[in-house]
Write a structure and sequence with these properties.
heterodimer, A: mainly beta, four-stranded antiparallel sheet, 0% helix, B: mainly beta, Jelly Rolls, eight-stranded mixed sheet, two-stranded antiparallel ribbon
C-alpha cells in the first residue's frame, strides 16, 4: 500500500438508517462523493460507535436489541464502474477498531485503488437465518476520499 | 508516523446541558500551519486536562447511553474536509476501558483501538474557528474538555 493512503485526505461519515427489516439496505445518495476518488472505507459497530450522527443506534454485537446476532451477518457490496466489483465483503474485515467482546481479531480498513463508487447502487446485505434486526438501526461507515 | 517537529495541545470546552455542538477555539499560533496529525486524549491516559483541569471528553464519560462523539474540521477554504469523524478514530492508545455496550449491564469491555497510532493527515491548514465537536445525545450538565494534541509543520 502506498504511504499516501495511510494519511487522511478527506473524510465523510455515512450511515444507512433503516426503519424496516429487509434483506438489502441501500446507501443513500451522497452528492459530495459522486465524483470523488475513494481510497479507504471503515465500518463501525455499536461496540465502538453506539450511535450515528443522527442519534440512531448502530448495529453490532452484544446490543440489547436483539441480543443474539453477530457482526458476521453483514456483507457489503460496492458498485464501481458499472459492476459490483466488491461483492458481499464480510464487514468484519473492515472494522479496524475492535472490542474484545467481538468474535474477531483481525479487522482492518478496506483500502481501495482510488475509485469512484456509485453509492446509490451499493448496499449491505444481511445473511439469512439469523435473528432479525429490530429497527430503527443504522450501518455506519467512514469514507476516506481524495 | 513521521518524526515530530512541532506539536501543541488544544482543548475544546463542552459545558452546556442542552447544546450538541461545540465550536473549537481560535488558535492563533496554528493559523497558516499545516497540520500533519491529531491525537485525542482519553480516559485511560488523561484523568484531567492539562490546561483547564477538566474531565477529558471521551465517549464513556458521557451518559449511560454510551453516546458517540464526532469531530468536524474545516480547512482554510472553509471546506469541511473531515466531516463527522468518530472520536474513537483519534484515540491511539491500545487499550481503552469503556462502558458496556449493553445498557442493561454494568460490565466494562476492553477496546483494542486502532493500531495506526496517530491519525496522520495529509498536511492541511485547519481553520479551527470553523471546526467543531458534535455530540448527538447532548453533553449533560457536567463540564468536559476535549483535549487534542495537534502535530504540525513549521
Amino acid at each position: 500500500m502506498h504511504d499516501q493512503y495511510k494519511k487522511l485526505h478527506n473524510f465523510q461519515f455515512v450511515s444507512i438508517k433503516f426503519t424496516a427489516v429487509a434483506n438489502q439496505y441501500y446507501f443513500p445518495d451522497i452528492p459530495m462523493l459522486r465524483d470523488r476518488q475513494v481510497y479507504k472505507i471503515n465500518t463501525y459497530f455499536k461496540s465502538t460507535l453506539p450511535t450515528d450522527n443522527n442519534n440512531t443506534t448502530v448495529v453490532g454485537v452484544n446490543t440489547a436489541v436483539p441480543t443474539t446476532f453477530v457482526d458476521s451477518n453483514y456483507y457489503l457490496t460496492l458498485y464501481i464502474n458499472g459492476m459490483e466489483k466488491i461483492k458481499s465483503l464480510d464487514m468484519n474485515l473492515i472494522n479496524p477498531i475492535q472490542s474484545t467482546k467481538n468474535t474477531f481479531s483481525n479487522g482492518g480498513s478496506l483500502f481501495l485503488k482510488p475509485t469512484t463508487i456509485d453509492f446509490s447502487k451499493s448496499y449491505v446485505q444481511q445473511s439469512f437465518g439469523v435473528t432479525a434486526l429490530v429497527p430503527p438501526l443504522s450501518f455506519a461507515f467512514g469514507i476516506y476520499y481524495l | 508516523m513521521n518524526p515530530v517537529s512541532n506539536c501543541m495541545v488544544i482543548e475544546v470546552v463542552c459545558t452546556n446541558a442542552t447544546a450538541t455542538q461545540f465550536q473549537m477555539p481560535d488558535v492563533p499560533y496554528l493559523r497558516g500551519k499545516k497540520i500533519t496529525a491529531i491525537v485525542a486524549s482519553s480516559a485511560s491516559n488523561c484523568l484531567a486536562t492539562g490546561n483547564l483541569n477538566l474531565t477529558a471528553l471521551v465517549q464513556n464519560q458521557l451518559n449511560p447511553l454510551f453516546t458517540s462523539v464526532f469531530l468536524t474540521f474545516a480547512n482554510n477554504k472553509g471546506f469541511q474536509f473531515i466531516q463527522n469523524l468518530p472520536l474513537v478514530e483519534l484515540c491511539c492508545e491500545s487499550i481503552q476501558t469503556i462502558q458496556s455496550v449493553n445498557a442493561t449491564t454494568s460490565t466494562n469491555v476492553l477496546f483494542a483501538n486502532n493500531t495506526n497510532g496517530a491519525m496522520e493527515i495529509n498536511p492541511t491548514i485547519i481553520d479551527f474557528t470553523k471546526s467543531y465537536v458534535y455530540v448527538p445525545n447532548g453533553i449533560g450538565s457536567t463540564s468536559y474538555s476535549l483535549q487534542l494534541t495537534i502535530f504540525f509543520e513549521n
